[in-house]
Amino acid sequence: MTDSNNRHSEHPIDAFFLDRWSPRAFTGEAMHKETLLTILDAGHWAPSSGNNQPWRFIYALRGTESWPVLLDILSPGNQRWASNAAALIIFVSRTYRLSKEGEKRPAYTHSFDTGSAWFSIAAQAMKLGYHAHGMEGMDREKAVEVLQIPEGFRVEAACAIGRMAPKETLPEDLRAREVQSQRKPLGGVAFEGWFSGEE
Ligand SMILES: Cc1cc2nc3c(=O)[nH]c(=O)nc-3n(C[C@H](O)[C@H](O)[C@H](O)COP(=O)(O)O)c2cc1C
Known about the structure:
Blueprint: E1 3-4, E2 7-8, H1 16-19, H2 33-43, E3 55-61, H3 66-73, H4 76-82, E4 87-94, E5 96-98, E6 104-106, H5 110-127, E7 131-135, H6 140-146, E8 153-162, H7 172-177
Antiparallel strand pairs: 1-2, 3-4, 4-8, 5-6, 7-8
């Protein structure tokens, strides 16, 4: 029962959660490095199992040498609109943790933990007047090679951050998709006591 951003929640959640969404229309404005570092700083205060902090953020700011390198890793479909963002981040996670003796042990929650860092980044970006848009669509093998990602690290996803632009700035096919998404009923994903919904 909160209404905001063309969305309506079943319970009185903070409007922030409805206002966060993933637009594709960005203004093409650049971002100061200090702003991006502030956003990444928030990300690395995310919680993680054992405070393992498995996330790694590989970033590029528009107008720098790294920008075309990261942009080129994205799928062609994502490049079309992400090219107007101000910053790109590729999220990588360390799949192991080190024991006291320095031995590598599998880190069961490395992806889960890195997901919480991604959300902190999206939230801090919102609070600074930006929007963040997550992306699975990229060439992960190219990312490993070009970004020199070591063994034992998993390429998770990417995101684009920028100032939102009017949807009229998008090509027609993307403009048609520039609408706030909705959600399944809460009862379809939250079960009291045992798994009682559809898969
Ligand atoms: C991990 C992840 C990967 C995603 N991959 C893509 C992608 O490759 N391309 C794209 O346009 N959107 C992508 N999205 C955006 C989702 O489609 C979007 O978050 C979802 O439809 C919910 O909409 P909302 O974020 O506006 O609430 C991705 C989002 C996440 C979190």
